[in-house]
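Q: I'm writing up a methods section and want to include an example of the input and output format. Could you take the sequence below and give the corresponding predicted structure tokens, formatted cleanly so I can copy it straight into the document?
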Amino acid sequence: MRVGIGYDIHRFVEDKPLMLGGLEIPHIKGLEGHSDGDALIHAVCDAILGAGGMDDIGHQFPVNDDRYAGIASIELLKMVRDRIDEKGFKVDYVDSVIILEEPTIAPFKDGMKKEIAGALGITKDNVNVKATTQEGIGALGRGEAIAAYAVVSLVKKNENI
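A: Here is the clean output for your methods example:
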């Protein structure tokens, strides 16, 4: 078994939908990014890549590569899954936390779990999504951005823990 951790942060911008966990979340602003800016999916990607001993998402899908301009981050997650598969691993479990002041994530957590699980080919029970606030402290606390952490375990294919 291998374990990886991922982190990502994106600032809010005008005139862009808010994508988080593979879902469009109703909000007045979206997240800046070369892709759709989905900080949760990017953190999950980095956790998987780290556990697989691979370079981070910025190296895998560089901002100067127009193929990834505006791409749905859930598609990047599927590509990461394929790269890990080629190395003989599969994702066993994902645990994540989103740090934001708003919007409220609770109504969307189940859908996020389904999206992530579907992209990774695992069950929804093997994905956890939590959220917390920054208690008004710093840029996240002022509502300027959203950050996410993820921890992922990988197992060799055809093995269970």
